[in-house]
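Table S5 (text form). Sequence records supplied for joint modeling of the four-component complex.
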Amino acid sequence: MAWMRSETMATMKDISKNAKVSIATVSAVINKSSYVSQELTERVNQAIQELNYRPNAFARSLKGKSTKTVAAIVTDIENPYYPAMIKGMDDVAIMNGFSFILCNTANDPKRFINYLDLILEKRVDGLLISNISLREELEQVEKRGLNYVLLNRKPPAYDKNYVGINNHLTSELSVKHLVTLGYRNIAYIGGDLKISTAHERWEGFQYGMTEQGLEVNASLVFHGDYTIESGYKHAKKMISVQKRLPDAICAASDMIAFGAIKALRESSIRVPEDIAVMGNDNNPYSENFIVPLSTIDHLKYDMGKMAMESLFERIEGKERGIDRQIILNPSLVARVSCGWLNRSKD
Amino acid sequence: MAWMRSETMATMKDISKNAKVSIATVSAVINKSSYVSQELTERVNQAIQELNYRPNAFARSLKGKSTKTVAAIVTDIENPYYPAMIKGMDDVAIMNGFSFILCNTANDPKRFINYLDLILEKRVDGLLISNISLREELEQVEKRGLNYVLLNRKPPAYDKNYVGINNHLTSELSVKHLVTLGYRNIAYIGGDLKISTAHERWEGFQYGMTEQGLEVNASLVFHGDYTIESGYKHAKKMISVQKRLPDAICAASDMIAFGAIKALRESSIRVPEDIAVMGNDNNPYSENFIVPLSTIDHLKYDMGKMAMESLFERIEGKERGIDRQIILNPSLVARVSCGWLNRSKD
DNA sequence: ATGAAAGCGCTAACAT
DNA sequence: ATGTTAGCGCTTTCAT
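The corresponding structure-token record, covering 692 residues in total, follows.
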């Protein structure tokens, strides 16, 4: 009765009995690994249909080497930065006939370690990790001998398998855009400097300012984290402390920009009329934000895609697989939060 | 050399040799399945440390019954409706010590079938499916004898394992909110009626209108799909066709509302001053949308969570597991797109 | 308290 | 062209 939920699925043995052939023949038919006569092939296929047979992937990879499985550990699937990235990974995995285990740590370091062990037990062929900032976390990965590539964030001075975007350039682009539009007195609200991307964006900001012949005003620099709350808090502080507001804010993430704009609006300061705000990362929310946010796009889908491709090169190349870093270039997305016209300010 | 990426990991046999005990003893130590002397236990643990051993989950579930794995098939991980739902599922899976395979079909029916077979081959213990609308798709699942629970959407007249929200009520709530605020001439822009949720929301709208003693004006009703584009298109059409606009729009999803508001703004029609717009589903974008959107919250996280809990009941209860449907109640989230005050319109 | 050995479902080398 | 058989890593009786 094919329609019944059979507690134990049919096995090759069942097929071989049903089709009155040997197990090896069944295997040969399924894997097309050697010639089998028309007749037996049919009998076997027939039996497979009848018994609703599906090979057991475990038994298979017990013998063989590969489990045809890859995994990814990401810090927060609810953060809009990641879904596109995950889709990029998944698409490539599928394309290669691999299955893909997604592990969401929800920013819990304990869950991270648990996942590492789980992945080991599942004998996964490769692992993508989005967001390792601490060298110790990386060590946990390496000491387990996992085949991995890092995504997005990386620990200090890491120079191996990594795919990310040129964060330094994101800020340069921001500054250049702002300056082109006529803004010169620019505040910076950044992320946690312990995170590589935040660090790079901050460096890029300083570099960009210098390049434009501008000075970074230390009283207009804030470091927090990539959240709405942090952007809100620091903008509030800036508003209350400064007698004269800067004419632009360069935020290190769109979330920060959202928070800053909220704070600004609460004080009836208009964006972009009174002050320009530049985001960074092109969050899917940004286009339709209260004020459509000018920002820097990060090619998140491609990041995931290329990271997975890179991982597959390592998997294919077995032990070898030369370490390499892929750095994607960001691009400017001009919307309305920075205005469009050259305004002259006294 | 523990730091080396060993192509083949240590096995129980290796441990047993290293610790000079039998394989059975190793197994007993690892699973605490029978008493082992202090001394041997230590020797075994020692060897496990040294060889960096991790049990092979495959071999394990080859013998035993359960693979300790669940899967979920979702239609679109990039749609902001789902990440929270997925997190709910994942959290419960983790809690139960199961691993969780996420399958994203990207709305591709072929990928759906492929995933079904994959899941079968991996001998997954249970499956969650968000978004089956077609009876034929369900049949594919059932004929494979999979242990599943449906989420969010369901095929017509489906009365088995399902977790969703009361879509009928979402529209009732919308209408009631609108009417309370003084709106009476209400347009409806809905989704694809072949989708259960869209159908239910449309039914709920009609019911709600009647309940409020209002008539549904057929020329103000549009059915499309849950996208920005669809909302935009139908609002445009309405604007161009109607000599006199309704005083409110009830949209069947936040995306539709976004699109409608876009169209409205393009025609310099203000929201909520000139027309109120009500969303549905409380998309994470909505709070900070161009005009913060009043909408109906869907408890997406809980949907995922409860669906997974329901699935575990089925897994635990083996073959049994009574079929049941869990319907969550939505709630109103009043923001600015519908205004706050009772306005009198002639 | 410990160990030997059978067997889970499959693949692949070897026989026939 | 087809079948026999030895493992893969582990769990689990069953002996000792």
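Note: The domain at 167-298+332-345 of chain B is CATH 3.40.50.2300 (Rossmann fold).
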